[in-house]
Known about the structure:
This protein is an alpha/beta fold. Helices cover 34% and strands 24% of the residues. It has a single domain, classed as Nucleotidyltransferase, domain 5, CATH 3.30.420.
Amino acid sequence: MTLRPINNKQKREKFASLFLDEIKLALLATITRMWVKIGIQAEIITDDNHEKCYGYTAIDSVSCKTHYRMAKDFNGREFLLFIEQLKRQYSDETVVIVMDNAPAHGYRKIYGEVKVNERLYFYFLPPYTAAKLNPVEKVFRFFRSKVTHNEYFADIADLIEAARNFFRYLYVCRGRVASLIHGEL
């Protein structure tokens, strides 16, 4: 992103910068290390259900406000619905959304800044860097450790409800989000 001088009109405008990413949630259990009593083997129930859903997530880099949308599909239509949700939330601000270049975003092989309209800009991260440069990835690691690792969900509705509860928690506990994305305590 190229920095340009700010004129007087821009000084009066409100700006928001959001980091956006998606997470795939599947019913197949993700098993990870855990403490167990010596001599006892931990057992995680699982079945052969491959049902999945997606969570579209955006985090305001200043206020640490978390936005999310749960969807059955990962495609351009769902992405645009999430963008419309964000535009309603920030209707009086100029918004810069930083994200990877996933095919569902509708911009193939574009890196850097894209002006969508007068109040919305997309900034695409270079390939293979999103995992390190997008702080939403840190939130997703925390999500997995608290919600999906070593857990069995009987159906997709239970998984979606657990994800919604997690994002509601983050919406209220912005200090926790700040500690995850900025490294603050």
